[in-house]
Specification:
The chain is α+β, with helices and mostly antiparallel strands and about 240 residues long. It has two domains: about 30 residues; about 160 residues, Jelly Rolls (Sandwich), CATH 2.60.120. About 20% of the residues lie in helices and about 30% in strands. The protein has two helices and twelve strands; from the N terminus they run αββββββββββββα. Strands 1, 2, 4, 5, 7, 10 and 12 form a seven-stranded antiparallel beta sheet that branches. A five-stranded antiparallel beta sheet has the order 3-6-11-8-9, with no helix packed on it. The longest helix is centred in the N-terminal third of the chain and has 26 residues. It binds calcium ion (2 copies). The site of one calcium ion (CA) has 5 residues, from loops. One calcium ion binds next to β5.
Length: about 240
């Protein structure tokens, strides 16, 4: 076999190995997962305001006699295998004293963006019929988000997508609030269950497969050029 022919065959074999290696790498590259993660979950099955999964603080200025936990929760919006169990019931109270009062959620969103708050809720006809969702960037000042909502008579899902509010992302002082209004009797009420704050983890950028392929081909080309130059220098053996 002549020396130039052997060199050409080696080069062809090398090119094929490089091609198939990177094609395999491209096909096997895992798709980036961008699923939302739950940051804080309240299922109210344990008759308290303490968070049940994750981290966060739920507080209120309701008259506490009008905040009770009742059987008849729901699986709507239940997470992590939670059973329906109980829900939280908020009552209008004597002289509808709780109109204008609120639930407050202090939940750090550090490491997350695309924040969404969701929960299952229902209300009686004399319960709170005009409830305003709000968010805060500093935990102090609150801004209305969306129009006031009226809970359905049987459990339904209510959700607030804050992905357009960039200040809520990656924020240790993020807070959320529901201000209740419209109750017209002491026993009129809203129930809430499976209150969830979730977001997408802020990922470290990962090079795309195409970028890796181009970079690698560039390096391979540079390496091949250097070998060629080395072999064609005067006095080098060219086999
Ligand atoms: Ca709890
Ligand atoms: Ca529950």
């Amino acid at each position: 076999m002549s020396t130039p022919r052997k060199a050409n065959l080696n080069q062809a074999l090398h090119s094929r190995i490089v091609f198939w290696f990177f094609l395999t790498l491209l096909l096997l590259w895992p798709a980036q997962q961008v699923n939302a993660d739950e940051i804080a979950i309240w299922n109210f099955n344990d008759s308290d305001l303490a968070v049940d999964h994750g981290a966060g603080a739920l507080t209120t200025n309701f008259n506490l006699v009008n905040l009770v936990f009742t059987l008849g929760g729901t699986s709507t919006n239940a997470r992590q295998g939670d059973v329906a169990g109980q829900s939280m019931t908020l009552q209008g109270g004597t002289s509808n004293a709780n109109n204008g009062r609120f639930l407050n959620l202090d939940v750090s969103t550090v490491g997350f963006n695309s924040i969404v708050i969701s929960f299952a809720t229902q209300g009686t006809s004399t319960g709170f019929t005009s409830n305003q969702f709000q968010y805060s960037l500093d935990g102090v000042g609150f801004v209305n988000f969306g129009a006031p909502y009226t809970p359905p008579l049987t459990f339904g899902l209510v959700s607030f997508d804050l992905s357009t509010i960039s200040g809520v992302n990656d924020n240790p002082n993020a807070a959320f609030r529901i201000v209740f209004n419209g109750a017209t009797s002491a026993s009129g009420n809203n129930r809430i269950d499976n209150l969830v704050v979730e977001g997408r983890p802020i990922a470290t950028p990962i090079p795309e497969p195409a970028s890796i392929l181009l970079l690698s081909l560039g390096l391979t080309g540079t390496l091949a050029t250097k070998i060629k130059v080395w072999r064609t220098k005067p006095g080098r053996r060219r086999d």
